[in-house]
Amino acid sequence: MLDVRDLDLFYGDAQALAGVSFGVPLGSITAIVGANGAGKTSLIRAIAGMETPRAGTVRFDGHDITGRESFEICDLGLGQVAEGRQVFPTMSVEDNLELGAMVPRARKDAAASLERVWQMFPRLLERRRQMAGTLSGGEQQMLAIGRCLMGQPRMIMFDEPSLGLSPAMVHEVFAIIRRLHEEGMTIVLVEQNVAVSLHMADHACVLENGHVVMEGRGSDLLGDDRVRAAYLGL
Amino acid sequence: MTIDLANQIVTGLLTGLVYSLMALGLSVIFGVVRVVNFAHGEMTALAMYAAWALFTWAELDPLLGLPLIALLLFVLGYVMQRGLIDAFVAKPEHMQFILLVAVAIIMVNGSLLVFGPDAHGIQVPYGFDTYEVGPLLVDKVRLLAATAALCISGLLMLFFRRTMTGKAIRACADNLVGARVIGLNVKRLYAVTFGIGAACVGAAGALLSMLIDVMPSSGPELTMLAFIIVIVGGLGSMGGALLGGILIGVSEVLAGYFLMPSMKGMFSFAILILILILRPQGLMGARK
């Protein structure tokens, strides 16, 4: 579904990604784990067209999307739930969701998508007129996920979806991701919560200082001594 | 005495509403694209020249020419943003400043070249008609211009509240990263925003052309006027631009009434300084 080859990304002179290669199989959950500053968010942003890589290629669903604009990439069906949720704080919950369906691929079916999101997140329906900025962190995360679904993506990249949420809310967010996976969505999961994300993932890669240092099945990595020592503190 | 003063205040109020529409354009552009349009008054002057040309050569009433002029300025603004300003959006502010000052200088000297240094004014056939409202005398031209300005401002607010394009533009102002995450075409929306800001200027220019003369030096004066209005009202606030315009319009006539008309600028700047000292975010601006 997604194929990243030899991706280099620089911020000025600082190299954020160095020759990153990995693949995301159709219908899988692929976890990207690594310490703070390892380049996880940079990788997501480079794939989504929000940063321009210096070298390498990104292919999504047969299209070469390297260096394309973010709105073009979204319109191919590559959705993103970004770090920090990035909702529109002074706009209503309903407006936030409707804006998610502004990409051409989703515009026609916006009404049906909205119904689906209301069903999936009844709490958002209760608060449809409320400003997004006044929602709790967990509700904002649901709004961010719902808004992404409004764009009718075929693959979603989640960047730190559990960051700053209460344990109950974290549980709920992971349940939603599992449910989307069961419905056939291809998922990339970037998480600080390494144990949970490796448990969930079919496929995983470990990022260190902008390099992929390990790649394999989630369960294999979970059993790997180096991963256990570095990320799980075992 | 009091009737005369009341007449003056009504005049200032009506003129102020037209100022508001012009300042609204500046406020919308800054609020979304985060670029300060230092060529704002020059664009207004351009619109006034267009109104004058249409009136003189095609005998088109400025009120009827208004949609055409607004459309023209929309295209100008759209193209300016797409072709010129977009490359500077992420650049430091002083670079944006130099760019737009350059645009302003070109516009001033271009109009000097085409229309010469003399003042051009429009005298519509109903220019001296007045309405008697109780004891007050209201100029017909001014009333029409103010009504049109108010209607256009209202339509603009509806556009931002009700249409998807309007909401998408607000979304860009609200959270730019979020706008890119969900695949909004930010560059196109910025160009539309600049176009809308310029269309406000076009409409305001057409209306102003019936109230005041235009000459090449009108541009910088109107830029200052628009700045004072949005800073007094609160930069980026649409309601603030409306309030600021009325306030400055009234202060101008009061300066003329109590002192002399040539001192109106001094009054406007005094209000600006007071606001900067007492309420730097402007009357309706949000404190960051």
TrEMBL record, chain A:
Family according to the record:
Belongs to the ABC transporter superfamily.
Q: What is this protein called?
A: ABC-type branched-chain amino acid transport system, ATPase component protein
Span of domain ABC transporter: 2-234
Q: Which organism is it from?
A: Paramagnetospirillum caucaseum
Question: One GO molecular-function annotation for this sequence?
Answer: ATP hydrolysis activity
Q: Which GO terms describe its biological process?
A: L-amino acid transport
Cite the Pfam families for this sequence: ABC_tran
Q: Which domain of life is it from?
A: Bacteria
Entry keyword tRNA processing: no
Give the UniProt keywords, A-Z. Answer: Amino-acid transport, ATP-binding, Nucleotide-binding, Transport
InterPro entries, alphabetically?
AAA+_ATPase, ABC_transporter-like_ATP-bd, ABC_transporter-like_CS, BCAA_Transport_ATP-bd_LivF, P-loop_NTPase
Automatic annotation (TrEMBL), chain B:
Could you give a single Gene Ontology term from the biological process aspect?
amino acid transport
Cellular location(s): Cell membrane
> How does the protein associate with the membrane?
Multi-pass membrane protein
Q: Which InterPro entries match?
A: ABC_transp_permease, BCAA_transport_permease
- Keyword Membrane included in the entry's annotation: yes
Q: Name one GO cellular component term.
A: plasma membrane
Q: Which CDD domains match?
A: TM_PBP1_LivH_like (cd06582)
Q: Which GO terms describe its molecular function?
A: transmembrane transporter activity
Q: Where are the transmembrane segments?
A: 12-33, 64-85, 97-116, 141-160, 189-212, 224-250, 257-278
Q: Which domain of life is it from?
A: Bacteria
Location, primary (coarse class) = membrane
Keywords assigned: Amino-acid transport, Cell membrane, Membrane, Transmembrane, Transmembrane helix, Transport
| UniProt xrefs under Pfam families | BPD_transp_2 (PF02653)
Q: Give the similarity note.
A: Belongs to the binding-protein-dependent transport system permease family. LivHM subfamily.
Record protein name field: Branched chain amino acid ABC transporter permease
